[in-house]
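Attaching the record inline, Q. Sequence:
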Amino acid sequence: QVQLVESGGGLVQAGGSLRLSCAASGRTFSNYPMGWFRQAPGKEREAVAAISWSGSSTYYADSVKGRFTISRDNAKNTVYLEMNSLQPEDTAVYYCNTNPPREGFWGQGTQVTVSS
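Structure, as predicted:
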């Protein structure tokens, strides 16, 4: 089992930046490809970015490509999501999980709110 705790969310103006962190504990974190996901009010949860276990390969949804950067530090058991040029449509609760996600690994998420 892996426990995941997201942090770093907040309220930011359009055009601003935030850096999210996901701290993992439990089973060997570095074995897992990881991803960031988000869920906006009234919408289904969607994948935002993903990273391979080594960090050598990444994926981004078209909506965030060029603005968000996913990275990981296996020594610290942490995954990051650097978010720049934030827009109101980025407002959502952001979660990390393995990629593909495992139902029992969802954490509480961290709220990101972007004001126009």
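The mean pLDDT is 95. The first strand starts at residue 2 and ends at 7.

More tomorrow.
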